[in-house]
Here is the input.
Amino acid sequence: MEHKLIFKDYNEALLQNKLLGLKCRACGTITVPPKIACRHCTGSELEVVELKGSGKIRTFTTVNVASEGREDEVPYTIVMVELDEGPWLMGNLEGIDPQKASMELIGKYVAMGNKSYGGDKYSAGESARPVFQPVV
Amino acid sequence: MKKVAVVGVAQTKFSGPQEKTGVELFAEAATEAIEVSSLKPQDIKALFVGNALADFEEGQGMIQAYAAENIGCLYAPANRYEGACASASMAVRDAFMWVASGYYDIVLAGGVERAATMGTGLATRTFAMFSDARYEYPSGVTFPAVFAMLTYLYADTYKIPLQKLREQMARVSIQSYQHGSTNPKAQFYGKNADMTVEKVLGSFVVCTPLTLHDCCPFSDGAAAVVLASEEAAKKLTGKPVYITGTGQASCGTLSNQSDYLPRIRAREISSRQAYDMAGLKPSDIDICELHDCFSIASLIATESLGFFDFGTSGEAWERGEADIGGKIAINPSGGLKSKGHPIGATGAGQVYEVVRQLRGEVEPERQVPGAKTGMTDTLGGDGGTLVNLILERGW
Ligand SMILES: [Zn+2]
Here is the structure.
């Protein structure tokens, strides 16, 4: 069976600030990031849709200890956002001071942009990551 | 299916960086487990070795074959299991299956890791490999970051003020430090028994809100157990400990677990399998060695395992209900927090502790009086691999 959407195409779209997902014809669930089967009903009748990239912060953390090779990035804030279309998506949060991130962030409405993680010797190349900003 | 017993168990000291190689560490645990089982290496029909990261720790792939040869199990089939921090529990569960099926009568299972040897930078990088590499690692997610996010989510889901939750989490670490301080095999043996809530909350913040004392250490170490069919076990020991229930489940990308978080759905499925197979319920368990990689992980685990209601386990710790003499004795070994967490060996280390508890063989300060039924709970990655085992006294 062929994937309707693979990492390469998802990633290239994300680098253009376009968030692609898969809509299940059987149950309507949106799957993002892409998979071969619907994350809810495991059906394979999926179609590629463009998502708005906006949603609410459900949780977050500010990281002070980074992986080898990413020490220059700390401190940075990771968020999990519940997208308007339902699924949760992990990304970074910018537009706030990472040292001041608090539980007041939970529920805040954010919109998506992106940044590329250049990758390291283990990562088989670069990957885009969603970068969210508070919507004011 | 045949009944399967744990005959003998062994563990190296869990510790910081070791001078011994991974093969040497495993071999020391394995030969001791074989010896205390009144067996010889030639009696072992197959080896099941948990190991997550030897490739990065020593540049050693296929460590299980070198381990088998080292201990004199020449030409025996040897399998490696990689399920991140649950690797050794997968190995024990599969070893159980092979004996239960009747194919082998005596096998060795265990695990080894030299995570501490890697140092914090490489260890943090390689542990993050257990997160989704293409879709979540780019955001800089680390293992503590996952549980840090679950902490805020837990506070928000169950409407517990963050400060109160953090104090409850500190109680988890304090209890683990106390037990580990009296466990000679623990990384923090003789240490941190005087830990206070203030010290936990005031230590270095790794990922908000988790401090150093909320997090388990990086560890080196190995553990091994000998499993045998009921017939074989009866000839070898008067104190067989039967594995009466096992469960295992997997799931994917953390964000895709959103329907259940901060609960870990794979744990609920895995533990249900184990309970059903053993014909037991949570209240039948006397002692549980569970996966406290972070203090919040203990709270989350005890709830999904059915020991406490959702959102209430912090109070249980405050009341001593999760301690020896309470409703259920959680991590009398000191747990991952204080005993240590050599990830590929951790699950076998949990079995080591439960078996010795059921046999009444641990130090008196942390012996659970009259324990008859024990459980292990091991989590790999962001909940991607969950394994539960139930063990019962067989005499
Ligand atoms: Zn579907």
About this structure: Chain B touches chain A through 42 residues (CB under 8 Å). The mean pLDDT of chain B is 98.
